[in-house]
Amino acid sequence: MPDDFASQSHIRLGSNSGKPQTRLDGIAKITGSATYAADNAPQDMIWAVHAGAPAARGKVVALDTAAALAHPGVIDVMTPENRPELAQDPDARAEFFAMKIDVLQNDAARYAGAPVALVLAETLEAALEGARLLAPQVEAEPARIGFGSSEPYEPPFVGFGSPAKTVTGDMEAGFAAAAQNVEVEIETPPQYHNAMEPHAIVAQWDGDRLILDTPNQAIVMSCPMFAAYFGIPPENVHIRSPYLGGGFGSKAVINAPQILACLAARQTGRPVKLVLGRSQMFGPVGHRGATKQTLKLGIDGEGRLTALSHHAVAATSAFDDFLEPAANASLNTYACPAISATHAGSRWDIGTPGAMRAPGEASGSAALECAMDEAAHAAGLDPLEFRLRNYAETDPASGRAFSSKELRECYRLGAERFGWAGRPLEPGQMRDARGRLIGWGMGTSLFQAPMFRAEARATLRADGTAVVETAAADMGQGAWTALAQIAADGLGLDLAQVEFRSGDSKLPDAGIAGGSGHTATAGSALFSAGQDVVAKLAALALADPDSPLHGAGNQAVTARDGRLFLAADESRSASYADILASAGQEALTGNGEGVRNPKDAEERAMFSHGAVFAEVAVDPDLFQIRVTRLVGAFAAGQIINPKLAESQLLGGMVWGLGFALHEEGIHDPRTGRPVNGDLAGYHVPVNADFVQIEALTVPEADPYVNALGVKGVGEIGITGSVGAIANAVWHATGRRARRFPIHVEDLL
Ligand code: MOS
Question: In this structure, which of 122, 193, 505, 672 has its CB flanked by the most CB atoms within 10 Å?
Fold first, then answer.
């Protein structure tokens, strides 16, 4: 860790950052030369397909292994009876973020689709047919699916270790001071990530070394987690994950099918490929857990919040504890003297939920923004004016200053772009030329700006080009490109002179591509690795009697375009290649770390902010909803690549529309089976669902969040968008939906 963080503040990024650079991996992806995990086919490889439990709760009483084994091409069937031992109990959580997994440890079915056996075969077709022939039967008990199917319980924490209960201020006094209260209850359903690339793994053993081709959002961190299951040292696990076809949180943790494939490879001594089918994504690889949220807002005569209570019951599995930290969204958004954010858990017979894009904030802010809209109407105020009256100048929960907060400018810019002024207060006032009901709604966007820990290495080569290395994960968000831009700036080189290596666990740990913290964290490490190279280069040049920079003492040197310049006299400069050659060096390596200044982390609240405005057109007879306009304005610190950042923000807003109107994992209440476990039944937005969508960014300088001033843009787009659309639907129709997605029948 650098001793003096202050000296890093206000770093001026070079000319590569800020450019709308097209994805460096774009051509490889669209021409098909990018190799995804499932594209690997090592010699002698066999296929594995798991059979899933046909019911959500009970005991597996029949498996026709004989039928499966008799099928041509089937090599073996792994069941709880013959499954090799694991070095770690899959029902223990070794790390707080590691989930319990179903890897044939017993004959219990804990959710529909949980692996109950694994078929190994010479071909995919034989493995699929073998799995079908197993025809598992479960002696089923009634599934617990839905709120009310089990008693709520008080959890020790929510999400990945966030507090389950936070109360600030005097709630009783707050509600007593209110002129009126607004109470809202909102339900959100299970949602499934549905990345374009299904989960996949190719596992091979070389003695006690495990080589894995598998998409992963936390490549180095995952090695010890795999290693623990097999009793091998973490360095014996090699994960290769150069490309991901979407992750959204579901590829950040280890899952059961991955471990089963590793077991099968060890047992057979052959490489094993296991690729989940689309329907198999609805269970063993996480989802966004359902929530039932109750909000109560006290408001005074001026439209100011006097108390805000947000209680979320979050669904989890029967055997593990990931709970959507939904209520915590209310802790940091609006000024209020008394805030209570509490959670309860509800055990369902469903796969364990996990992190899904904007975990907590997505569901929580959806409910909060709907409640704020109702409160604004109750107060007789325009929804934007109401939010401005409750603008949080400091973090409501902690009282700390924000590291930066350009939300006011987001409101202004977004409202102006949308044309919010003149919006009628009452619903049902606007129609379009086709007679459709028109409504306008808005929501505030908020997402934390965390930093994790990352390392990076930069090596300058004799020809003045460089290679930079860190085990980052490009899951489609553009990390490869944005991080390479930062790395080039750290080195004072042009992007084209920098080779970016990532996606491999042998490289320095880039931390997790999650929590919207990857660019900030891995980017900081890359930048400082480049700066380390530049510092070493400067030392060489200043000490070299033949260098134009010789004898400059400790005068400042600047690095750009592959040259070092004396800051005070730019006529004195030397190229990197010449400095290396003159010093007789083949290469020069620098190391960097990405970590937040602990003092700033303690003293400041760090969030990205935004405002989303939505217009909907609703058929007055059939109540079909069309989002005709969605405008978001976001402040997320320094934007490294405006093109990719816009794409991330738009992607988040698209998820917001999906959350508001489409996405819903429907489970049969009797068996617990997902009844829409495919992309025909599980609806996600497509291009045709959008008429006009726009994401703007607001400049924001943040000297505290990290040396680069970078926050994150990956998740914030969902937040705000969900509420904005729901509120627009109310403004069009006068009807408040109490559950997501909003169904036509909820408006009738
Ligand atoms: Mo994300 S849900 O932090 O990958």
Answer: 672
pLDDT over 50 (residue 524)? yes
Ligand 1 pocket, 477 CB below 6 A? no
Q: What sections of 280-406 are H helices per DSSP?
A: 361-378, 383-389
Instruction: Report the percent of the chain where pLDDT is more than 90.
Output: 95
**Residue 176: inside a domain:** no
- Helical ranges in 231-275 per DSSP H: 256-268
For residues 652 and 248, is the Cβ–Cβ distance under 8 A?
no
- Which residue has the CA at smallest separation from atom 4 of ligand 1? 249
The rounded distance, in Å, linking the Cα atoms of 359 and 715 is 9
The string of pLDDT tens digits covering residues 322-342 is 999 999 999 999 999 999 999
**Is the minimum distance from the CB of 658 to ligand 1 under 6 angstroms?**
no
CA separation for the pair 314, 291 (Å, rounded): 4
What average pLDDT does the segment 380-392 reach? 98
Q: How far apart are the CA of 607 and the centre of ligand 1, in A?
A: 16
The answer to whether the beta carbons of residues 76 and 88 sit under 8 Å apart is: no
Determine if ligand 1 sits within 6 Å of the CB of residue 307: no
Note the pLDDT tens digit of each residue in 332-384.
999 999 999 999 999 999 999 999 999 999 999 999 999 999 999 999 999 99
Atom of ligand 1 nearest to the CA of 359: 2
CATH of residue 261: 3.30.365.10
Decide: 249 in ligand 1 pocket, CB within 6 A: yes
- Rounded to the nearest angstrom, the distance between the alpha carbon of 517 and the centre of ligand 1 is 9
Is the CB–ligand 1 distance for residue 290 below 6 Å? no
pTM of the model: 0.96
Q: Which of 88-97, 166-175, 735-744 has the lowest mean pLDDT?
A: 88-97
Q: Averaged over 684-706, what is the pLDDT? A: 95
Residue 595 Cβ contacting ligand 1 at under 6 Å: no
* Runs of H (alpha helix) within 565-720: 576-582, 598-603, 642-657
What pLDDT, on the 0 to 100 scale, is given for residue 11?
61
Q: Cβ contacts of residue 7 below 8 Å, gap of 6+?
A: none
Statement to judge: residues 583 and 647 lie in one domain? no
Give the mean pLDDT of 562-567.
Answer: 94
322 and 402 in a common domain: yes
Q: Are residues 271 and 342 in the same domain?
A: no
Ligand 1 centroid to residue 355 C-alpha, Å:
6
- Give domain status of residue 208, yes or no: yes
Is 29 a domain residue? yes
- The secondary structure element, H or E, covering residue 3 is none
680: its two tokens: 């025909």
Residue 677 CB contacts under 8 Å (≥ 6 apart), including other chains: 113, 192, 278, 279, 281, 282, 665
When divided into structural domains, the chain yields a total of 3
**448 in contact with ligand 1, CB cutoff 6 A:** no
Ligand 1 atom nearest residue 251's Cα: 4
Distance (angstroms) between ligand 1 centre and the Cα of 259 equals 21
State the closest ligand 1 atom to the C-alpha of 250, by its place in the atom list counted from 1.
4
Distance from residue 717's CA to the centre of ligand 1 (Å):
13
What is the per-residue pLDDT for 5?
37
231-258, pLDDT tens digit by residue? 999 999 999 999 999 999 999 999 999 9
pLDDT at residue 2 above 60? Answer: no
Domain that holds residue 519: 3-34+452-595
Let me know whether 476 and 510 are in one domain.
yes
Ligand 1 centroid distance, CA of 651 (Å): 14
C-beta of 356 in contact with ligand 1 (< 6 A): yes
DSSP assignment string, 499-527 = EEE-SBTTSPP---S-TT-HHHHHHHHHH
Average pLDDT, stretch 63-79? 98
Helices (H), 544-610: 576-582, 598-603
Please report the atom of ligand 1 found closest to the CA of residue 252.
4
Q: Kindly state whether residues 276 and 402 are assigned to the same domain.
A: no
Which residues form the catalytic set? 715
Q: Is the pLDDT of residue 3 over 70?
A: no
Atom in ligand 1 nearest the alpha carbon of residue 517: 3
